[in-house]
C-alpha cells in the first residue's frame, strides 16, 4: 500500500534528478530532510518519518500542502550555479549537514546553525586538486578519528583532510568547581584501541594475559555461514576431531567464517581524567590525581542497531611518590544474541537485559602482580510476556565474590568455574518458580594464597529492590562455604506516592546467624505522601541485654543494688522539607510530629530543637537541648 503525503510545493513536483534537490539532515534530528538549494537560497522540508515531510499538520486535503518548507537564513551566495562539487555533509559532527563546496585547490565550508541558518564561509586553501570534469570527492571517516574527512581519490592514491581536526564538538573537556579543584578530560577514538589490541594479539608481540581481537569465534562452526559459502562438507566446517592437539584444532578452524562482533562505527571514548587542586598558584606543589583508560572488544548489535559498549575496559590510576600506579581491568556483558537466533531478526534476544553488566574485575600493579579478582553472578529474570508475546527480562546481581591475594607469599593458582548468568522465571503472583545456570564463567585464580569474600543478594523483587542480602565475610576459597559469622540485611520498600511512583525505604535492619539475636541497626522512616521527602527517622535497639547489681553495702557511701528495667531503646528525629533535622529525641518516638519546644516530652531523655534562618532555611540560627526529665527541663 503506497504512502500518501502532502505536496511539497505547488506546480512542478520535486525531482531527485534535479541537481538542486538533495537529501540531508538539516536540523540534526536524525531524519533525512528534502533540501532544495541554489545560489542565494536554501530551503528544506523536514523529514518526520513514515514518508511525511514538511512543517505543520501531518495530513492535508488532496492538492494542498505547498509552502511547508523552512527557509534558512544567510544562504551562501558563492555557490557554483551548476552546483558542481557542492555537497551536504556533517563535517563538524554536530548532527546537522553542512554545505561543502570543493574547488580546484580550495574547499569552502558553510556550517549549519541548527537548521535555521548558515555561518560565514570558511575557506581551506592548498587542498588537493579537484577538476570539475573528474568527480573524485568522497566523505568518510578514513583516519578513525570519529569525524568526517573529505577524501580526494584518484587512480594513484587517496588524500584527505579532516575539517574538525579529529575532535568532536560539544564534549566536556574541563570542570572548575569554584573551590580550587580543576578537572581536565581528554578523549580518544575507539579505533586507537582496536589497532592496539590487534597489534598486541599478533603472535610476535602478544604479551598480555588477555588477547582481544574484536571478533568472536563461535564454540563450533557457524553452520549457516558455512552453508551459504558452499563449504558445508569441507574440513573447516567440521568439528575438531577427538584427540587433536590445541594447535591442530586452531589450524583446522582457522578457515571458519566467523561473525564479527566489532563495531562498524567509531566511538569517542574518555582517554584520561586529571584533577588538580591548583596549589601551584600559591607557590606550593599541586596535588594531581590522574586516571587513564583503554577499551577492548567493542560490539555493535546490528539487528537492534545499537552500540552495546565494550567487552572490557582498563583503568590506570597514576600514583605519586607515596603511592604506586594501580591497574584494573573490568569485563562486561554485552547482551550478545545466542548463536541459535543470530540470523533471526524477529527472534527476541533473551540476553539484551545483560548489556553493560560487570562480571569480572582484576586489579594488579605495574609489575603485573595481581592484587585482587572480583566476579559476579547475574540473574536474568523473566518477568512476564507481553500481549504481543515479547518476553520482558530484568537483570540483577545475585552474588559477588572477591579474591584478595597474599602478594608476599606467592603460590601458583588454578581457576574456578562459577555461574555467570542464571536464568529465572516468575509465577503470575511474582514467586520464583525456576532457576537454571545458563552460562558459566571460568575465573583465573592468580595466586593460590587468597582470601575469598562473598556477598549474596538473596531476595530481589520484580522492581529491583534488594529485600535481603547476606554478607558472608571470608569463605572457603574453593567451595564458597561460610567459615565466619554471617550478617543478613533486610530492607522494606514503601510506595509513598503511587501516582508519582515514588518509592522509599520504610525500614531496614540487620541480623547475625545466631537464633534469638536482636536486630542490629534497626530503623524506620516516614515520608511525605506527596513529595516523598523524609519526615522522620526512628532507630530501635530491641531486647537489649539486662543487667542487675546486688550492691556493695547499705552503709553510707555504698553503691545501692539495682535491677535494670527491660525495655527497648528508641531514638527519633523529625525533618523539614529541605532535609534539615528539626528535633531529636533520645528515648522516645516523636511519631514524625514536631513537639512544642517550650514543653518537650518528658519521655525524652535528651531533646534537641534546631531553628534555621528564615530566609533560606539552610543555616542553623539556634539550638536548644533539654538534658533532664524534670519540669524545669534544664537547657
Describe the structure concisely for a colleague:
This protein is mostly beta strands and 635 residues long. Among the domains are: 141 residues, no CATH class; 42 residues, no CATH class; 147 residues, no CATH class. The chain is built from 3 helices and 36 strands.
3D structure, described in words:
- The chain is mainly β and 635 residues long.
- The chain is extended.
- Among the domains are: 141 residues, no CATH class; 42 residues, no CATH class; 147 residues, no CATH class.
- Strand 11 and strand 12 form a beta hairpin.
- The termini are far apart.
- The strands form 6 sheets. The chain has a 21-stranded mixed beta sheet that branches. It has a 4-stranded antiparallel beta sheet with strand order 1-2-3-4, with no helix packed on it. Strands 5-6-7-10 form a 4-stranded antiparallel beta sheet, with no helix packed on it.
- The protein is built from 3 helices and 36 strands.
Q: pLDDT below 50 for ≥5 consecutive residues: which ranges? A: 204-208, 217-233, 253-260
| Fraction of residues in β-strands | 35-45%
Structural category: mainly beta
| Percent in helix | under 10%
Gap from first CA to last CA: 84 Å
- Count of helical regions: 3
The coarse silhouette is extended
Q: What profile does the largest beta sheet have?
A: 21 strands, mixed
Give me the count of strands. Answer: 36
Radius of gyration: 34 Å
Average residue-wise pLDDT: 85
Multimer state: single chain
Amino acid at each position: 500500500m503506497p504512502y500518501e503525503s502532502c505536496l511539497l510545493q505547488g506546480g512542478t513536483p520535486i525531482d531527485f534528478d534535479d541537481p538542486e534537490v538533495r537529501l540531508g539532515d538539516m536540523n540534526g534530528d536524525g531524519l533525512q530532510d528534502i533540501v532544495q538549494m541554489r545560489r542565494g537560497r536554501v530551503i528544506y522540508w523536514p523529514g518526520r518519518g513514515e514518508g511525511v515531510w514538511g512543517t505543520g499538520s501531518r495530513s492535508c486535503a488532496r492538492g494542498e500542502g505547498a509552502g511547508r518548507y523552512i527557509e534558512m537564513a544567510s544562504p551562501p551566495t558563492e555557490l557554483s550555479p551548476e552546483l558542481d562539487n557542492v555537497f551536504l555533509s556533517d563535517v563538524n559532527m554536530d548532527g546537522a549537514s553542512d554545505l561543502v563546496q570543493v574547488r580546484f585547490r580550495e574547499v569552502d565550508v558553510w556550517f549549519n546553525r541548527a537548521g535555521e541558518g548558515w555561518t560565514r564561509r570558511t575557506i581551506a586553501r592548498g587542498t588537493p586538486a579537484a577538476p570539475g570534469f573528474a568527480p573524485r570527492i568522497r566523505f568518510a571517516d578514513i583516519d578513525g578519528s570519529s569525524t568526517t574527512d573529505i577524501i580526494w581519490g584518484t587512480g594513484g592514491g587517496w588524500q584527505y583532510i579532516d575539517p574538525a581536526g579529529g575532535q568532536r564538538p560539544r564534549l566536556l573537556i574541563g570542570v572548575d568547581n569554584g573551590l580550587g579543584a580543576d578537572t581536565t578530560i581528554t578523549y580518544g577514538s575507539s579505533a586507537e584501541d582496536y589497532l592496539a589490541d590487534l597489534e598486541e594479539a599478533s603472535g610476535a608481540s602478544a604479551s598480555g594475559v588477555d588477547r582481544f581481537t574484536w571478533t568472536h569465534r563461535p564454540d563450533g562452526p557457524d553452520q549457516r555461514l558455512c552453508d551459504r559459502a558452499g563449504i558445508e562438507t569441507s574440513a573447516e566446517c567440521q568439528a575438531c576431531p577427538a584427540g587433536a592437539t590445541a594447535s591442530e584444532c586452531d589450524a583446522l578452524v582457522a578457515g571458519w567464517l566467523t561473525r564479527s562482533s566489532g563495531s562498524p562505527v567509531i566511538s569517542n571514548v574518555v582517554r584520561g581524567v586529571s584533577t588538580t587542586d591548583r596549589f601551584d598558584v600559591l607557590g606550593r606543589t599541586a596535588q594531581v590525581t590522574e586516571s587513564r583508560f583503554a577499551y577492548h572488544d567493542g560490539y555493535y548489535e546490528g539487528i537492534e542497531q545499537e552500540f552495546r559498549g565494550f567487552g572490557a575496559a582498563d583503568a590506570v590510576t597514576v600514583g605519586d611518590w607515596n603511592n604506586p600506579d594501580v591497574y584494573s581491568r573490568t569485563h562486561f556483558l554485552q547482551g550478545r544474541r545466542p548463536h541459535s537466533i543470530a540470523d533471526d531478526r524477529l527472534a527476541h534476544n533473551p540476553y539484551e537485559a545483560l548489556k553493560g553488566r560487570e562480571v569480572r574485575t582484576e586489579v594488579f600493579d605495574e609489575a603485573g602482580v595481581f592484587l585482587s579478582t572480583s566476579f559476579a553472578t547475574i540473574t536474568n529474570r523473566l518477568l512476564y510476556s507481553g500481549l504481543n508475546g515479547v518476553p520482558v527480562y530484568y537483570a540483577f546481581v545475585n552474588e559477588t565474590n572477591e579474591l584478595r591475594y597474599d602478594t608476599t607469599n606467592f603460590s601458583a593458582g588454578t581457576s574456578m568455574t562459577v555461574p555467570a548468568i542464571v536464568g529465572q522465571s516468575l509465577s503470575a503472583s511474582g514467586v520464583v518458580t525456576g532457576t537454571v545456570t545458563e552460562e558459566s564463567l571460568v575465573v583465573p585464580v592468580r595466586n593460590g594464597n587468597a582470601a575469598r569474600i562473598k556477598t549474596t543478594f538473596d531476595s530481589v523483587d520484580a522492581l529491583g529492590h534488594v529485600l535481603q542480602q547476606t554478607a558472608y565475610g571470608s569463605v572457603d576459597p574453593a567451595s564458597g562455604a561460610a567459615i565466619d559469622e554471617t550478617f543478613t540485611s533486610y530492607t522494606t520498600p514503601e510506595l509513598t506516592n503511587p501516582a508519582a511512583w515514588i518509592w522509599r525505604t520504610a525500614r531496614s535492619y540487620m541480623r547475625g546467624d545466631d537464633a534469638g539475636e536482636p536486630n542490629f541497626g534497626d530503623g524506620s522512616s516516614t515520608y511525605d505522601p506527596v513529595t516523598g521527602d523524609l519526615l522522620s527517622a526512628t532507630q530501635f535497639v530491641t531486647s537489649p541485654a539486662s543487667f542487675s547489681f546486688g550492691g556493695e553495702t547499705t552503709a553510707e557511701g555504698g553503691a545501692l543494688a539495682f535491677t535494670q528495667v527491660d525495655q527497648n531503646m528508641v531514638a527519633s528525629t523529625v525533618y523539614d522539607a529541605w532535609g534539615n533535622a528539626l528535633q531529636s529525641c533520645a528515648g522516645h518516638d516523636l511519631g514524625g510530629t514536631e513537639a512544642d519546644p517550650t514543653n518537650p516530652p518528658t519521655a525524652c531523655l535528651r531533646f534537641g530543637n534546631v531553628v534555621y534562618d528564615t530566609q533560606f532555611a539552610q543555616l542553623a540560627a539556634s539550638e536548644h537541648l533539654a538534658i533532664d526529665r524534670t519540669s524545669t527541663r534544664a537547657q
